[in-house]
Amino acid sequence: MKVAYNIPEFREARRKLNGSLGFVPTMGYLHEGHLELVRRARAENKNTAVSIFINPTQFGPREDLAAYPRDPDRDLSRLREEKVDLVLMPDAAEMYPPGYGTWVNVEGVTERLEGAARPGHFRGVATVVAKLFNIVEPTRAYFGEKDAQQLIVIKKMAADLDMGVQVITVPTVREFDGLAMSSRNVYLDLEERESALVLHKALTLARNLHSKGERNADVIRKEMTALIQEEPRAKIDYVSIADASTLDELSSIDRPAVVSLAVKIGKTRLIDNITLAG
Ligand code: PAF
After folding, report:
1. Per CATH, which fold does 183-276 belong to?
2. Which residue in 31, 34, 121, 210 is the catalytic one?
3. Is this structure's pTM higher than 0.90?
4. 34 belongs to the catalytic site
5. Whose CA is closest to atom 3 on ligand 1?
6. What is the C-alpha to C-alpha distance for residues 238 and 264, in angstroms, rounded to an integer?
């Protein structure tokens, strides 16, 4: 496995690869969810590349950039075990040198949910992913369904800008009890870890109501909200039932819908979602 610590080093190694390249962009602190993306990339491509870069431009001023968990040595040994070919680990000064001034804004879908709660977040995500696609030149890029809105944004960006990269959705990987895997789960203490299950419980409730025939989105939102409010450590940011491609809120589930939520457990903000057929 070749580890490139800067862009020219990566490009030189990339030039030597023949055949398709599957790419997994990450911010490190890798868990099973990331490794599942890597395995899909390996299974579907001749070569596999992973980037590890904590992108400062997608964090708001009051967010957890400085505290974001890191363990590059452990990350690299996990990627070696997965037989990844190439790893890119640039530093922030190379990605955003003094005078940096070009940004990618995906309109519409970035204005709701995570975009409304975290102003500027998707501008940072779209910009860094565009830069990484330009550097890595992947055939396919793999993203987890846990960040459903991010996936919609990246798919739209890749299509609108004719990037020629196939953006592949990989289902969310969950812990044994249903908690979605996330690097931020490390912030939870034991009691908070227990309380965090309320996200999965609320989504399961939505799925059950839907499979019993409930199509009124307000009814489902209200039931989910009531369930989460029973958990004293949980503070709801949003509970959304939205059109799966535009993320417009629905009053009736008459088409594929994403049920998503953001809930603070103590100081940790967690997100999760499921998709319902119409
Ligand atoms: O999902 C993430 O980890 C990040 O948003 C990404 C796609 C690596 C961009 O920094």
Report:
1. Pantoate--beta-alanine Ligase; Chain: A,domain 2 (3.30.1300)
2. 34
3. yes
4. yes
5. 26
6. 10
